Amino acid sequence: SYLLHLINRALTLSGKGIVRIPVDRYKVSAEKLPTRLGVARWDHIESYDGKKVVTDVRRLLEGYPLRIPASWHDADSAETVQLGEHDMIGIDGLHVLDPSYTAALKGNELLSIYVEAPAPLRFMRRLKRDLSRKTPGYDSGLSILKAWATVVELEKIFVYPTRDSAEIIVEEGSDTEAGNLFSELHFLLNHLLIDPEVKANKS
Whole-prediction pTM value? Predict the structure, then answer.
């Protein structure tokens, strides 16, 4: 998301822009979410309606306005977008380099960018996000800590293999963010350990 923001800011100087399609707005319904042991696997590729994403991108390319769904944690975030004469589309999401997306959009001029960041930074970001949003299924200290193993597992299956197909690989993470990593992780983990569920499992 931040990378697309930077690219869009640069393009604006030449009268162009990016219409962002955030794939995380295209979650499947709760009853269709892949689960394991009763817990939703939010990072699974089948947790997103990829066919709907591709259909909406095609309609946008055809000149139609598009209503982007609201995110699950902000019911007022739905928005209508339309492609300007000189605009580009930025499809932003965890699995967008998977062939189920790229093959379906074959015939259009595509630029594939793979953004990676060190695992400790991604772990910290996920902790901050899930603590603030109270992600369903990951809304307690213990569940968030347990979720990381699933995240890593699903990345190995669905995300890492797409790295080699990218035309550009960007290593993300500012020096400031990296410098604050351990102090922020210390604070967040202490916050999690206040959770009675975590305390009970420590003893």
Answer: 0.78
